[in-house]
Amino acid sequence: MATAMFQGGAGLGLRVVSTAQRVTCVARPKSARIVPRPAKKEVQLNSLAPVAALAAINPLADFLQDGCGYLGWRIRLSDSAEEVAVAQDLHPKLAIGMTLFFALGGLGGSMSVLMQGKSLWSSSHFTTAVIGLILLALQGMTSAFFEDDPSARGIHAYLGSAILALFLYHGTLGLQLGLSL
């Protein structure tokens, strides 16, 4: 820190304090060669973390999918009014949760495929996921017509069963994909 003393006209001392910091040049001259730094250890995509995540997440997806399908068929086939009421309460909640869970999983899976430098549409796992999510959206829309069209319930139920079969195939493709990494 630099200090300077000045005398004023009336004998007052004026003190100026300079707190200038040293300036370091951050730009390199054009003639200087940039020496590359050694690369840090890269994170492998097929490390234990994704495997552990899949092992933890897939049972939840299976529970949501199977539970939703089971409750939907209990609504159609049960003779117990109490069981139907419980299933009618839980079925839409599980269906929305399952759809959101699958959509978020699809985002993560898409990022994984892109980080591997592969095309999304070249993966049959991705293709079945997109088809499944579109069918889930269409199936969800059929519930809006339950009051007007009695056949809408049947379409909803059988389309849901077909979607469950598609997602079983999707799971098989995902397992093959995961084991190939």
TrEMBL record:
InterPro entries: DUF4079. Signal peptide: none annotated. Keywords: Membrane, Transmembrane, Transmembrane helix. It holds the Pfam family DUF4079. The keyword Transmembrane helix applies. PANTHER family: EXPRESSED PROTEIN. This is Cytochrome b561 domain-containing protein.
